[in-house]
Amino acid sequence: MAEKKSTNLLEVGEEMAPFEFTVSPELNQQYLYAVEEFHPRYWDKSELGAPIVHPSLLLNFSNRTRSPSFYLEPGWAVIHAQEVAEFINPARVGSKFRVTWKIENVYEKRGRTWSVADTLVTDEEGREILRRKIYSAFIHSDKKQ
Hints:
3 helices
């Protein structure tokens, strides 16, 4: 078995393990109650198909910490610093989704390592649903901040 690589050591071009999840009606409804969102597009079937998955649920489920390969050595932390998100197609309740992360850039700024992950959410038919660029800073408890 290959040794786990700490996420802060990933280099340009490396990919994190994909994450797959299904948004059941119950999961979507629990999320909708939690955020107090009651618009019919998230609850009711329409002529276009099943209800739409709430966009913030997709954002939550596509953070890099969801990857099965996400790992940080003790003493390390990651700060989600910025992102650019583009919703391309609606996500439908009952669908299975796949999230992939590819490291697009790694650089140092103010003594910290920064990383940009190109993140893509697709549905079971391969349609692009969401594309994100996630900018993260990695810090260590031994370093003065």
